[in-house]
Amino acid sequence: QVQLVESGGGLVQAGDSLRLSCAASGDIFTRYGMGWIRQAPGKEREVVAAINLSGGIEYYSDSVKGRFTISRDNLKNTVYLQMNRLKGEDTAVYYCAAVLHDLGTRPAEYDYWGQGTQVTVSS
């Protein structure tokens, strides 16, 4: 199994940028597709970005396409989420998650989750 620890959340203003990081340990990182999943109060979890094992395939939800970029460094066992032009509706807890041997576009597909990091965007 894999352990995931997110960092980089915080309070920013609308229009600002923020980068989230997720450090993985415990298993071979390249066995896992990685994703960033968010949950806002009163809303269902949403996969906002995902990346496959090698980093060659990316997925974005329509709500963040063109503003967020997911990337992974397989030498550092780390996945990143660069968030630009943040909006108030991006306010949520952001979770890093791992799915074995796949690219996950739905929260239920993910096998392992981090504890989450809060992102709050003031408008």
Task: Describe the structure using short key phrases.
123 residues, mainly beta, seven-stranded mixed sheet, four-stranded antiparallel sheet, 0% helix
Total E-strand runs? 11
Shape: globular
Q: Provide the helix percentage.
A: under 10%
Using only CA atoms, what is the Rg?
A: 13 Å
Biggest sheet descriptor:
7 strands, mixed
| Structural class by SSE content | mainly beta
Provide the succession of SSEs: EEEEEEEEEEE
Distance between the termini: 39 Å
Number of helices: 0
- Unreliable segments (pLDDT under 50, ≥5 consecutive)? none
The proportion of strand residues reads: over 45%
Mean pLDDT: 96
Please characterize this protein's 3D structure.
This protein has 123 residues and is an all-beta fold. The protein contains no helices and 11 strands. The protein has strands at 3-7, 10-13, 18-25, 32-39, 46-51, 58-60, 68-73, 78-83, 92-100, 112-113, 117-122. Strands 2, 4, 5, 6, 9, 10 and 11 form a 7-stranded mixed sheet that branches. A 4-stranded antiparallel sheet has the order 1-3-8-7, with no helix packed on it. The termini are far apart. The model has no long low-confidence stretch (mean pLDDT 96).
